[in-house]
Amino acid sequence: MELFIAQILTGLANASSLFLVACGLSLIFGVTRIVNFAHGSLYMIGAYTGYTLMQVLPGAIGFWAAIALSGVVVGIVGVLIEILVLRPVYKAPELFQLVATFGVILVIQDVALLLFGPEDLLGPRAPGLRGVVRIMGEPVPKYDIALLVITPIVALVLWYLMTKTRVGVLVRAATQDREMVGALGVNQAWLFTGVFALGSALAGLGGALQLPKGGADLLMDFNILAPVFVVVVIGGMGSLPGAYLAAIIISVLNVFGVTYLPQSTLVLMFVVMIVVLMFRPYGLFGREEVAGEHGQVGEPERPIKPASFRVRLVTSIMLLALAFLPLLGSTYLLVFLTDILIFCLFAASLHFLLGTGGLVSFGHAAYFGGGAYVAALLITYSDTPMELTFVLAPIGAGLVALVIGWLCLRLTGVYFAMLTLAFAQLVWSLVFQWGTVTGGDDGLVNIWPAVWLKPTVIYFYFALIFSVCGILLMRHVQHSPFGYALRAARDSQRQAEATGIDTRRIQLIAFGFAGFMGGIAGALFVFSKGSVFPNELEIARSFDALIVVFLGGVKTLAGGVVGAGFFKGLEETLLRFEYWRLLMGLLIIFIVIAAPEGIVGSLRKVGEHLGLKKAKDQ
Amino acid sequence: MLDLKSINSFYGKAHVLRDLSFEVPRGEVVALLGRNGAGKSTTMKSVMQLVRTQSGQVSFQEQEITSLMPHKIAQLGLGYVPEDRRIFTDLTVIENLIVGQQPPREGAVTWTQDMLFGLFPNLAERRNNRGKALSGGEQQMLTIARTLMGNPLFLLLDEPSEGVAPIIVEQMAKVITQLKSEGLTILLSEQNLHFAQLVADRAVIIESGKQKYYGTLHDLNSQPEIRDAYLAA
């Protein structure tokens, strides 16, 4: 019993940072409708800033001042991000802003590396709060007690700000209908900036507050994202009490998990999330998202059409050129091109889901890595012939996608997207923590293809055929009756249902199909590398695919493929530099601002502008 | 006071307003009449630049406003009351009023919450209820009250009589007359000619985004053929 209470107290203390970061994310999303993926990065900056300030400022006052100042500093960073990066792209199609925040993540990672070095920093203890307090005989760190007091105070201040001040009323009004708030004479631009500053400051505060319990390292930006998403989804988007309660549930359970089920700590929170969502699909305190209620129904999508003769000709010539490339005899080039082909297929599978299905999956790596792991597991444990593995791996990935899709499709909009990310993390956690089967962090090695496929040239052709056929198949499906139904469900779910389309079933099939195609890419990947590690399932891998699809252009059929080629080429070029993330991030941000329709879409617009291609709607 | 000169507006590719020109003189109530889909709401939104005008000019008190953001236009004293009662349903009545609040303006009535509760007694009883708990008529009153909190010089009233009970419609007419007597200039869009006749001095009739009539209501009454051609019975 004593231990039980002590553990609950520890859990409550741990909830502190999680709550602050989740609150900030939820606040920013509510008003700007941007899922700020860089929120973890702001949390990381908060930790580093706090650490640095604590070295300079002396004593207990210095310690607490450092924490408060970290909030201020990160708030200012948030303002800069909002003004410099996001403001130019608010008018871009919905979700495109995400890519800008990916760029910000990369930039911040390298800036942090540059400023603070690669070593993990151990957080300083709080002066005056170093020891433990005995509560019913059990030791509870004094700092935990401090957090237990601080968090409710911060929550109360926030609550007061949101409910009792005009600014808070405006923020809540803007969360519901920001256009109307503008029409009533409120400058939205400053409201956005203000909310971004506040949300960022909360993340910074969260980062600095957890220092004595943890520290600062360069991985904490991604590490916090999944728990924060889970908290936001469980609590309900935009709900302060929800975020608080969810943060507490997750943190307390985690403490118990560490004690009683140490093998499953990472998985536990996802299980809780699934259970909660079974009963309350929009979280404990959330409400359903109603499409178009925010006065931002986008421009209608262009109709898609089969490729023109010219496009087919150009594509065929390029494919032919690819087919003759092995004549050049460069193994390096072939390996590189194989990578690109695999990535193109992976990106195209996400693009299919996003562009045609309108289903934003933040966790597409689950199917790519899933396919790779199914293949690797089959080879490792059952000596399955490679040829059969190539059939079973995509089926496995497709099944995973069907299960995840079935659970996620109960929700729509941003809840759906966040849930896909959370499930992808669940898959990652399973693989990461189930070391006896999956090899955990050490991955699975010695996964080589059959003898006839071993030569690089043969494998290149193999990958070429599979990727090209896969991409053509997806294009074909887009033009099939199934594709029409899927697009109908995307554009107007209710009207589609009224015409007799079972939209959920259609979307589920699309989800499974995209997972299947991602699984093919994963299988191609694992045999080309001979090994697979959990990072193929990571958030970062999902983000790569999202960046590619958005940069290529969501609303164009070729977007995924063009983006993938561009991205891989860029990565290969930039990897030579020490601070390639910084360059890559800046470049991504630049493209987002300069070409808000993606590469293909913007090229098309330029073409139409120059009169090369006639706009087809006249 | 408000002057529209051959404005053209689009929804995506659809050309909704075609060379629309009319003016609303200071102190008058002008009714913007037309059938469903004629472009009345788009005209209102175009004035506020919630729908961007592609060409033409809107000026308010001799100042060109087409290049401004909606919040700037509102700050000049143009109060917009949307047709679909876009109140903030998660906010209480009082909080809705707070959102609309703007600094006092020279030449305009400075509204307080109590004054508005006097104007709309029904709202007074429900001041701490959330927007979603209100009836349709109450929501309509709240939209008007919320906009009045901005102390406007000019009111754009988009179909205030739509879908509310007859008794509320009568109340609306009284309110509009009172607001006019306090010096507000009003552009009122309506399908209901009867309601317009209760309150308006002048009428503009549009059909498919084109202007079909501009003149006093009195003259319109003597031209039943126009009335019958462009307005529902």
In short:
The complex is a heterodimer of chains A (618) and B (233). Chain A has 618 residues and is an all-alpha fold. Chain A has 24 helices and six strands.
CATH superfamily caption of chain B: P-loop containing nucleotide triphosphate hydrolases
- Major sheet details of chain A: 2 strands, antiparallel
The largest sheet of chain B, given as strand count, sense and whether it forms a barrel, is: 6 strands, mixed
Span between N and C termini of chain B?
A: 31 Å
Total of helices of chain A: 24
Q: Find the biggest chain interface.
A: A-B, 22 and 26 residues
What is the name of the CATH topology of chain B?
Answer: Rossmann fold
What is the succession of H and E elements of chain A?
HHHHEEEHHHEHHHHHHHHHEHHHHEHHHH
How many separate domains make up the residues of chain A? 2
Rg over CA atoms of chain B: 17 Å
Mean pLDDT of chain A: 87
Average pLDDT number of chain B: 90
Query: Rg of chain A, please?
Result: 25 Å
SS strand fraction of chain A: under 5%
Let me know the number of strands of chain B. Answer: 10
Question: What structural class do the secondary elements of chain B suggest?
Answer: alpha/beta
The best one-word shape of chain A is: globular
Structural class per helix/strand content of chain A?
mainly alpha
Helix content of chain B: 25-40%
Distance between the termini of chain A: 75 Å
